[in-house]
Amino acid sequence: MVFSSLTFLFYFLPGALLLYFLAPARWKNFTLFLSSLIFYGWGEPRSLWILLLSLFIGYQTGLLIDKNRGTKKSFYWLILSVTFSLGVLGLFKYADFILASLSNLTNLPIKPLNLKLPIGISFYTFQMMSYTIDVHRGSVKIQRSFVDLAAYITMFPQLIAGPIVRYADIEPQLKVRDHQLANISQGLRRFLLGLGKKVLLANTLGVLAQTARSSQDSSVLFLWLYAVSFSLQLYFDFSGYSDMAIGLGGILGFQFMENFNYPFIAKSITDFWRRWHISLGSWFRDYVYIPLGGSRTTSILWILNLLIVWGLTGLWHGAAWTFVLWGLYFALLLLIEKIWLKNWLELSKALRHIYVLFLVMISFILFDSADLSLALIRIGGLFGANGLPLVSVTALYQLKSNALLLLIAAIGATPWPKQCYQRLANSRFQKVLSLSETPILFGLALSVTAFLVDGSFNPFLYFRF
What we know:
Elements: H1 6-22, H2 28-43, H3 48-67, H4 72-106, H5 121-137, H6 146-154, H7 167-170, H8 181-214, H9 220-252, H10 269-275, H11 278-292, H12 299-317, H13 321-341, H14 349-368, H15 372-381, H16 393-412, H17 416-425, H18 430-454
Helix pairs in contact: 1-2, 2-6, 3-4, 3-5, 3-6, 4-5, 8-9, 8-16, 8-18, 9-14, 9-16, 11-12, 12-13, 13-14, 14-15
């Protein structure tokens, strides 16, 4: 089940919210846990046992880590917990990748396991690991209620595509949370805006990207259309999901961290990764980069730490060498920036903005390609490699047909719409804006519904991770 589906919007969500708000305070976490199991099991019934087993092991090892605090046993239980989490993730997500790599390396006919990847396993595994690690560090108190811990891990707003919510961030909210009407209204507004991003922008951009990606009438213009539309699609798809997750969390009384902060206005690649998928970047920083020594070590070890973290970041996104290369590509860019480009990046705002957009767009071509050779063909095609014509009839038609969509998406990826809204809210038009907000959101909901009724299924891109 996905947020941008009629089943979720008109059946599951109303029912889940009705049960949640009718339940007494002491039963709300159980109701949330039960609803989340139904949500997950609806599309992944065969993978439900993996989630439940991970919950049980994480809960039990957390208790044992806390019980043996101050002894070596506490550390051993932590190692067992992390090993189990990574083992399950490795088995279902990376086993076939490792076997295929070994087969190619040794020329042996190694058969793949063909295990189905459980949706959301990368997200809930990282959340469970952060919980047990923080319990061992003493930065959070042990959670003795299985239901409360399960409600945190399985919470349906963020279960299958993030953001990666830290237990430390919502620990107090698991006991006491605010259900004021103003917070519910704000959460609903955020959810509808995210839904609009996904259905009206990301899905439509996805159609353009797929048309340009698969067209037989290829050209330089068509490849640029593909690169730009896919980059915007990926942003609106994932940031739209994050908005919906944050909005649903707000309705339920939880405050989730922001996961995107207008990454396409970044002034450098370093700045871009402070703005894109913030919860993943902070997770790798706190649980991998800093424990390895971070930048407070020798230059060689610092470079090695960056390569390890970004290689793992790429691998987290998918079990393929293209994802590993994608992560290492950013590691290289970050090293170049930190060592050589510090002063240059302060010279021209326009140049550094173009520099960031171009390199990020190139990275997303690699991200979207099945192998390195296809990625190089596509990147080379941006500059007319292999005799590719500058324009084609189909590309011109698609550009004219989608110019308004691309313009709206480009503007929507900046803070400008939000800034305009805030200025109007603080001006003499405040009453008009306040009165018109509800009809606008209602119109947005109707438009989304019409698209969903008329359109085909289009899952979130980050479901595969």
